[in-house]
Amino acid sequence: MVLSESNVSSRTRLASSTRASVRPTLTTTQKRTSSRSSTARPSPDRRARCADEAQLGRVLESCYAAGRDRRARRVDGALLGRMLEPRRATKRNRRAQSADDDRLEEAVRKDPALADLTNDKGQRAIDLACLECRSAMQKALFFLGRYDVDKGPPEHRSATSLVVRAVDHEAADDYGKLFDEFDKDGSGTLDSNELGALATKLGTNVEILKLEDGQSYTRKAFVAKCQRLFGKERKVVLKIFQVEEQWRNEKRGRDDQQLDARYVVQTIPAPTDDEFAKALGETNLFGEGVGSRAIVMDAANRNLFQIYQSERPDLNKVRMLMQQVMECVQHLHEKRLVHGDIKMLNVVRLSLDNRLRLIDLDAAAKVSRHDGDYVCAKFSSAILPPECFAKLNADQVTKFEAYFEGVDTELREKVAPKTKHGASYVVKTFSLTDDGAPKIDGLPYELVEASVAVDYWSLGALLFQLVAGEPLVPSNRDDDCVNAKSMAILASWNDHAAKKNLAVIKDAAARDLASKLLVRDPDERAEFSIADTLAAHPFFKPPKPGDVATQEKLDKIIEQQEKDSKKLDAILSLSEKHRDELRQTRSTLMRAIYEATEVSTPTAFVVLKERLPAGEASVELTLNDDGTGFVVEGEAVDEAKDRYEESKTWLNLCARFGRGVAKCSPSAIAEAVAGACEELVVGEEMWLYLIDELTGKPVVPEGESIYPIRITKPAEVVSKLLPAMQVGLHAASLVNGVAGVVRLFGYPCPKVPEAWREGAQNSVEVLKQESSVEAFGAVHEKVQDGGEETETVRGAALRELEAFYAKYDPDREYAGLRRIGDPSDGTAVWTLLTDPEEVKAAIEKRAAQRRAEARRHDERFQELMDNAEAGAPAAATTPAMPIAAAGGGPSAARALASPRR
C-alpha cells in the first residue's frame, strides 16, 4: 500500500461531513509499541504498514523542510509511527507528542492537502491518525480547530451579519461533556426528568430525547443517541455579527426567555465568546470586517424561501406551513417577545422532525406596557406595517441624514430615504448606544414601540407571498422596498389598498385571513388572535361535507369579497377619459393641503346649523326658464332660500379668509375666525355632513346612523375644522361655481337664480384661488397656537380631521361612503355610488359642470378687463386676477393660480 500525493482528494470543506464515522486503526497499540524496541523480525503486514508510514513521512518531511526551523529532527517513518499511534501518558511521551503535534500542525497548515492523502483503500491520513495527530491536523485545517467551514458562498449575508455552513468535528466530544455536566449526582445515568435543561443546552426539544417507558440514559447510550440524531460530525451554521449589540440582543432574547426548541432554532455548545473573538480577529477566512461575535446553531435543510421556490407548495401545504409559522410566533408572543423580522429567510426547517422554526432574533424586542422596547433597529422594510414608515420634508431629511452620518456604506444605503415626487420615505429606524439603549436625540420622528401587531402584519405579508406567488410590494433580495413607490404603498395602506392588492388571492378563505392581518390600524391589528384563528378560521379549518356552520361562514366571506370586487370594477371598467376626470376631481380636493396617497378618510364636509330633511322630506326645486326664480312657491322656496343664505355666509367668510391672507394679516384671519363663531357657530349644537365627492351632495343617511354628527360644542370644534372644510368649498367652487358650493349645504336645485348668484359670485372667485386656501390653513394654524412654529398645514389639517373621526366615528362608517379608485394614481374618491354606469354618469355630469364653470370664469374675467379699459371703478368688484399669497410655506412665493380646467 502506498500513500501518494496523486491520491489527494479535492478538498471541499462541506464534503468533509462524509468522512468515516469510525476511524480505522493502523495497528493494535500494545503490539505496535513493543515491536519498535524488539529485535524480532516484523511480520509482512507490519512491514507494509512501515512502508506506508515511511512514504507519508517523506511527504511530510518535504513539506516541513520548507519551514523556518531546519534544525528540526527528520520526519521519518519511525517518527510518523509514533505520531500515528496513541501512547501511554508518560511525562517524556507528553513532551515528545507535543513537539510532534506542533510540527504536524505546521506542516498541514502550509499544505492542507496532506490531511487528505489516501491509500489504495481510499482511507485518508486524517481518518487513520491517532487522536493527538488528528487533533493537530484539525487545528490546522478547521476554524477554531473544530469547524470545517464550507468553502462555497455564505448561507446568508446582510449589512449586519454573515451566516456560513460548517461541520463540527468535536460535536461527539460535546455530547459526553454535556452528560457529565448534567449528571449532578454522579450516578452515571440521566433520568427523564433531568433531560429538559439538557435538551435546551443541546439545542433540541426534550420529546426527541426521551426514551420509552421513562427509562434512564447511560453515558454511552446518550452519546450514541445524540450521534444518531445530530451526527458524530454535526452540521451547523455560524452566525457572525458585525454589530455587537445585535449579538447581545439575540443572546438576551434566547437566554432570558427560555425559548422552546420546537419553535425557535437554539444555540448549541460552542467555544467561549472570547475564543470566538480571538479566532475571528486572527483569520481572514470570512473576509474583512465581519465582526467579532458569533453564535452556533444546527443547520437547517431548507429555509421557507427555498421550500417555496423548489417544492412549490400547493394550498394544502401552504396551510400546514402557515400553521407551523403561526405556532412559532404565538410561542414568542407568550414569552412577551416580538420577532420583528418574520420573512421567508427567517423561517427554516430542521431535519430532526421536518418542522418549521424561527431564526434571527437579533431584531426581537420585548413587549411591555411600561418601558417596552422599540422595533426597527434591524428591519426588512417590505414586510413592515404602515406605522413603521415616516414621510419626511426637506428639513427632516437633512436631520435624518445627519443622525446616520458616519455609518458604513452598506447600512447607509439600506436606511437612505427613498424619494417620489418630492416626498421622502424612510423606515423609523434608529441606532443604539454602547450599552444597547436607543439613540433618540436627533431623530425626525417618534419610534415605534414593540407590539404583536408588527408581527401580525409580517405574517400577512408572508401569507400573501405564499398564496399569491409574489411579494406584497416589489422588494429586493434583502426583502427591502425597491423604491419609494413600494414604501408609499405601505405607508399609505388603507381599506381600499387592501381590497385592491388582496384581490389577486384566489382562495376566499386565504384572502379573508390576509385581510385580517394586513390592517392599517395597529390597535385593531393587535386584537388578532392566533389561537382563535387556528381553531376556527375557514383557511385552517376548511368545511367538510355536512359542516353547515363552517360552509355558511365561508359563503359570507365570498359574498362580501364579490361586493368589494364589484366596487373595484366600477373604477377598473372606466375609460381613460373618465379616469382623467376622476384625477381632476381628486386634484381639486387634495392639491391645496393634502397628498392623495396619505389621506385615508373622507375630506369633503360641511357644518350646518340645522339638520337637513331626510328621504321624502327633501324637495327638488325647478328653476324658471328665464332663471329669475322657481316654479313652485311657499315653504320649499323658503327652505331653499335659507340653505342658500347659510352657504352664502360661509362663502363670505371664506372670502374674508382669503383677503386676510392676501394682506399678510394674521389679525385679519383671527377676526374672520371670530366672525365665523359669531355669525355661524351659534346655539348649543351644529351638524356635520359628509359630501359625496362625485355628486357634490351632502350625504343624508336613511334610518339610524351616527351621521350627521351632532357637535355639542361647536365653538370649540368647528374652528379647528375650518381649514379642512374650506378645501371642500374650494373644490366645489372650481367644479360648479356658486351652484356647486350651495349644493354642499343641501340646496335643492341644480342651478341658482342669477339674482341670487350675483351676490355670492365675488366670494366664490376668491375661494377659487388655490394658494389662498393653502395659505389660510397655515396662518390659521399659527393663530390657533398663538403664533408659535407648528407642523406643516397638511399635517395639522389631517390631524384635526382624523382626530374628529376617531372620536365621533370610531367604526369608520363614513355615512356609507366608500373609496373607489386608486390613491396611487389620483383616481380615488369617496362616494355612495358603486354601479359602474352610475359612476360614469356622475363623472360625465361633473365634467360638464366643470367646463361650464370654466367658461363662466373666463367670461367674467373678460368682463372685468373690458370694464378696466373703459375706466370702470376697479373697486366695484373683486378681481379674479392673481393676488400675492401669504402665510408661509410654498404659497408665500407663489401667485394665486386661476382655476384648473
TrEMBL record:
Biological processes annotated in GO: mitotic DNA damage checkpoint signaling
Positions of region (Disordered): 1-49, 86-107, 867-901
Start and end residues of each Protein kinase domain: 179-540
Limits of the EF-hand domain: 170-205
Compositional bias ranges of the Basic and acidic residues kind: 97-107
Record keywords: Calcium
One cellular component term from this protein's GO annotations in UniProt: nucleus
Signal peptide bounds: none
Family: Belongs to the protein kinase superfamily. Ser/Thr protein kinase family. CDPK subfamily.
Annotated protein name in UniProt: Calmodulin
Source organism per UniProt: Pelagomonas calceolata
Lineage of producing organism: Eukaryota, Sar, Stramenopiles, Ochrophyta, Pelagophyceae
